[in-house]
């Protein structure tokens, strides 16, 4: 599980996110939504340890910036970044080595198959399309068996089969107790996945609520989004 306590991030004098608090429980899929500029990427990058900020973030009780904390989570950025001269196989091998995972081969084969990348395994990073790079980025994150996984706009650029496989995989991970945060604009596409909505606006949380706290079961993510961002 993941706990965010009183996080404030300033870019120079500009306060991008202010006093953010929320918690996502073990085995929950949280969708992080909000208009452009609300602060979603800033919070995801803060959790991933890529920014300096005020406040405290813990992953299963460990500070996110410690080695113990970093072992427990992984992050799929919005824009994948490949090593241009490593093949797909070598990316997986490199990540497994970096995380000290020795028996990763079977897991890697399963991921390659799931994301239709088996025949692309010898391609170099620089030869991959944007969607393929996104798939490699996702496979590398999943290979480390994280307890918490962060996705920044994971579905953009993926083909329909990969979207279907990723959603199926997220539900499997959730059932294994993995905590998942997905930042997205594609509300329809995560409708069947979410357990908790974290809605941001102007750098603040306007709503953090689990699905079963809503009175109306039929309320869609889109209804909730507009109700809280436009006050209708
Ligand atoms: P979102 O992901 O919700 O679209 P961001 O977290 O990217 O929002 O941005 C939140 C606010 O912080 C925006 O006003 C954005 O312009 C600002 N911002 C983001 N990154 C930087 C940066 N590196 N320097 C200055 N301002 C930034």
From TrEMBL:
What keywords is this UniProt entry annotated with? Answer: ATP-binding, Nucleotide-binding, Transport
Could you tell me the superkingdom of the organism this chain comes from? Answer: Bacteria
Give one GO term, molecular function aspect.
ATP hydrolysis activity
InterPro entries reported in the protein's UniProt record: AAA+_ATPase, ABC_transporter-like_ATP-bd, ABC_Transporter_VariousFunc, P-loop_NTPase
Q: Which residues does the UniProt record annotate as the domain ABC transporter?
A: 2-227
Q: Please state what the protein is called.
A: ABC transporter ATP-binding protein
Which species?
Answer: Clostridium paridis
